[in-house]
């Protein structure tokens, strides 16, 4: 992640890991020279198999309300 991003993207996620990965790929492809950080409030249940992990590359994951 850039130290001084030009843009911060904020997303609330519930069972959305695959969609977030696809969106990240698209954003990088369409904006190759832009710096951004992507914050995700993860609201999936703790035992969900589609929960975005805190170590997911390209995202800064914070715990949501769930």
Outline of the structure:
With about 70 residues, the chain is α/β, with parallel strands linked by helices.
Task: Please describe the structure with a list of short key phrases separated by commas or semicolons.
66 residues; alpha/beta; 3-stranded parallel beta sheet; 1 helix
Q: Percent helix among the residues?
A: 10-25%
Question: How big is the Rg?
Answer: 12 Å
Structural class, from helix and strand content?
A: alpha/beta
- SSE order: EHEE
β-strand number: 3
For the report, how would you describe the main beta sheet?
A: 3 strands, parallel
Our count of helices gives 1
Low-confidence parts, pLDDT < 50 over ≥5 residues? none
Strand arrangement, major sheet: 1-2-3
What is the end-to-end distance? 27 Å
Beta-strand content: 25-35%
Report on the structure:
With 66 residues, the protein is of the alpha/beta class. The protein has one domain. The protein contains one helix and three strands, in the order βαββ. A three-stranded parallel beta sheet has the order 1-2-3, with no helix packed on it. Strand 1, helix 1 and strand 2 form a beta-alpha-beta unit. The N and C termini lie far apart (27 Å).
